[in-house]
């Protein structure tokens, strides 16, 4: 009987992508099948997040809850991956002896080997940063549905003063352009219509382009079209001169050319690297959605500077305005950190003013959490927790209100949605997502519309979704 794999994922979309690749990996090497039921698993993996203290605590609570499974089945293998693994390493096993394997975000491709060792009751820790090697060893991805993530780069070199990512995921490393394009082609052939290009800082993407002598090595692939080394056996990722790189703008243009791909998103980008070439792509590539997630964190210049974000409030506004000029229907979302050390009432007000000025539609907003080892963790923090909670509440209320306004303005308009499946609660209805990621439910029993783009007229805006009707099912593509 096939061995069963249970994966629990905490944190960001990068982790979700990595988890699905872990399943692909062990599916191929050990013919493991995913299960939703942890008590029947032979291998349990926890893909962790350390962005805030609460996320980190969840890891040990979760491991505690799995202790009884190990007592029942001593052959059960428990592995911890992701950013907490990267940060804590072997210490995880001291605190949670049920753990057999600890692996970082860059070593998940070595899982098959680690599982073999663990099966012999050997404890394994591998949290090294072997650059982007992992992608060369992953099997072709399996996707379900018409929307998929594709990781294009790893790590971050920005070192914002509050953030652990550069320490847990390493510095920025981009996958070669052709490697990414091959992956998109492979998933487009499986029916994917929408890709979300992923990375901690995707607009820092600089993917190697094979030219001249290096191109000769392109025959040297691992059978999946992924280049493993050049003629001399050197890893050719990230080699070459400046002109041998494609930036995010070029990558988007090339992805848009791939048959079947009609919608492109990217997450997450940094305002500092929101380049002119990327802004131009909004004019040139209609497949790129009019929905931009561009984290600003704060609207106060003083706080932005203390966060070491590398830009001020006005620069942010100027860049957004330029995209809005090209795409007047642009929907904006952002991450916010509330209660960064030294945030005064005025600083918070600056953030609220910025929210009104940009008209943000959605946010990931959290109270600042001091992370060990980051420069900001040493800063004096005098704002009481109750004030921070109140500020967070005010901010989230305001953004929700703006989101409702935007949804109401969509009523009467025609939107193109990517149909994802049957509506969750409503019999006889299908649902899909607009460019700005809103769910639209509509009456239809035509299941052939699923995974296609369909034009709908929005008829009503409800609390968490929209209701619409199909303009002409014949126009579905
Ligand atoms: N690359 C992205 C951020 C990735 S981290 C960028 O350019 O901003 C995801 C989000 O987690 C950040 O945007 C930030 O809002 C939040 N975050 C990171 N460190 C945090 C901390 N110490 N406390 C609270 N939120 C934090
Ligand atoms: Fe973190 Fe700043 Fe990079 S928030 S992921 S260090 S851009």
TrEMBL record:
Residues 3-120 form the MTTase N-terminal domain. It catalyses: N(6)-dimethylallyladenosine(37) in tRNA + (sulfur carrier)-SH + AH2 + 2 S-adenosyl-L-methionine = 2-methylsulfanyl-N(6)-dimethylallyladenosine(37) in tRNA + (sulfur carrier)-H + 5'-deoxyadenosine + L-methionine + A + S-adenosyl-L-homocysteine + 2 H(+); N(6)-dimethylallyladenosine(37) in tRNA + (sulfur carrier)-SH + AH2 + S-adenosyl-L-methionine = 2-thio-N(6)-dimethylallyladenosine(37) in tRNA + (sulfur carrier)-H + 5'-deoxyadenosine + L-methionine + A + H(+); 2-thio-N(6)-dimethylallyladenosine(37) in tRNA + S-adenosyl-L-methionine = 2-methylsulfanyl-N(6)-dimethylallyladenosine(37) in tRNA + S-adenosyl-L-homocysteine + H(+). Its main location: cytoplasm. GO terms for cellular component: cytosol. SMART domains: Elp3. Its EC number is 2.8.4.3. Residues 142-405 form the Radical SAM core domain. It is found in: Cytoplasm. [4Fe-4S] cluster 1 binds at residues 12, 49, 83. Residues 408-472 form the TRAM domain. GO terms for molecular function: 4 iron, 4 sulfur cluster binding; metal ion binding; tRNA-2-methylthio-N(6)-dimethylallyladenosine(37) synthase activity. [4Fe-4S] cluster 2 binds at residues 156, 160, 163. Binds 2 [4Fe-4S] clusters. One cluster is coordinated with 3 cysteines and an exchangeable S-adenosyl-L-methionine. The keyword Cytoplasm applies. It is an enzyme of class 2 (transferase). It comes from the Bacteria. Keywords: 4Fe-4S, Cytoplasm, Iron, Iron-sulfur, Metal-binding, S-adenosyl-L-methionine, Transferase, tRNA processing. It holds the Pfam family UPF0004. Its cofactor is [4Fe-4S] cluster. Belongs to the methylthiotransferase family. MiaB subfamily. Catalyzes the methylthiolation of N6-(dimethylallyl)adenosine (i(6)A), leading to the formation of 2-methylthio-N6-(dimethylallyl)adenosine (ms(2)i(6)A) at position 37 in tRNAs that read codons beginning with uridine. Monomer. This is tRNA-2-methylthio-N(6)-dimethylallyladenosine synthase. It comes from Oleispira antarctica RB-8. The lineage of its organism: Bacteria, Pseudomonadati, Pseudomonadota, Gammaproteobacteria, Oceanospirillales. The gene is miaB.
